[in-house]
Amino acid sequence: MRMCPECRASYEDDVPVCPAHGAALVSLDVSPRDDALEPGVMVGEYRIDHKLGSGTFGDVYAGEHPLIGKKVAVKVLNRRFASDPEAVSRFIAEARAVNKIRHRNIIDIFSFNTLPGGRHYFVMEYVEGQTLAALLEQKHRLPVATALQIAQGVASALDAAHEAGITHRDLKPENVFLAAERDGSHFPKLLDFGIAKLRDDDVAHETGSGVLLGTPLYMSPEQARGKKVDARSDIYSLGVMIHEMLTGAVPFRGDSAMDVALKHDTEPPPALSTVCPDLHPALDAPVLGMLEKRPRNRPASAGEAVATLVAQASELGLVARPPLPSTNAAASELRPTAARSEPSTERMSALDSSSVHQKSSSPRWLVAALGIVILGGMGSILLRARPPRDERFESSASSVMPSASPEPERIPSAAPPLPPPDVTLAPAPPEAPSASAAALTPPPPRPTKPAPAPRPTGKAPSKGPDLQRILGERE
């Protein structure tokens, strides 16, 4: 005789799995009581406190580190599976799968070893709360907001597992642990990867064709037929679980596991609104999409499937509208940065404006200075370019003209000096611009003293005779 480790039902030796739970049957030669660990027993560094529950291949105990008081959960492989290489490989694969995924919505496993009797065990994080199965047993149905909040966490864990190449293959309410939050909400954590399938794994624990592994009530059609499964099988199981959370019942039931498996494969699933008329028909399509018979017709990922359902529920006002990552999330990340950067922007603007003023004022001073230098240089060049006779004439004129009282109103300011051959003394003002220009322009490099010729004779320069003589020669 063989027995189901979950429901303890007995079957003949030719029955490989439990028809109700899909668990592998074990021989009755080993009593389940032989597997129990007594409180106070040390398992590695942790002391066993009490038993928490049982899984497919082992029992789970609450433990505590005797020195630092850290609470843990210890899962120990059942004695009847200790000599089964396939069961041992699956037990190891569960620990490997969890550590390969490493996601906050999956129970963490951080230690692995064997007991003195040869049984394997691993140590997991301890979380206060209850399973989804226990919550459904209490509430029967869950509000839409609560159900979708749990579904989002499970979908996030499944997406992480699928990205790591792992298919859970046994998704059901018993394997979803709800950690109790301070605000009364539930934080879901996926557990029991005991029959998970690792893609390209070197641990050989593939089942033979036609052997059912998993729970028939939540199996996908391809899994019920014993075919190879992938991530889309988990999406189907998630759809069954969402259907149960919202309606209080699974889509298909039957007298045996085979009846249920056949319905999964052939019968169309009922819509949510037909089971519970109080549910809006707009919620039907997203869940029915997850329950498509053909894997290729299901959503591409668990997260995408749940997001579609959440979006529809938000349109109906059943849940809060999810924030858009491209607007709200980005704005929440950018607002503090913008607030912090405003003073810097103001400082940068002030620096830029002052720099512009400084840069704009400096060229003006340079232009003015260069203009003065250029004017002075041009004046000196003009003075140097005159013949020596004109220079003597100008010097004598300049020494005489200050004694006279020139009339400024009659002096043309812009009149250029006449060339030496055309000089006439009929109008006196033409000589005044030269004296005025000489007074206004910077002094030339050459001295402006009277020519040294008159000094040896001691004679003062004569005004009238010299001018008359020059006029006579010109005529």
From TrEMBL:
Q: State the signal peptide span.
A: none
Record domain Protein kinase: where: 46-310
Top-tier EC class: transferase
Keywords per UniProt: ATP-binding, Kinase, Membrane, Nucleotide-binding, Serine/threonine-protein kinase, Transferase, Transmembrane, Transmembrane helix
Q: Locate the compositionally biased regions of type Pro residues.
A: 414-432, 441-455
Name the positions where ATP binds.
K75
Q: What is its EC number?
A: 2.7.11.1
Superkingdom of the organism of origin = Bacteria
Give the stretches traversing the membrane: 365-383
Give the start-end ranges of region Disordered: 321-360, 393-475
- Listed Polar residues bias regions: 351-360
Q: Which GO terms describe its molecular function?
A: ATP binding; protein serine/threonine kinase activity
- Kinase is among the record's keywords: yes
Keyword Kinase recorded: yes
- For bias type Low complexity, the affected ranges are 395-406
What's the name of the protein?
non-specific serine/threonine protein kinase
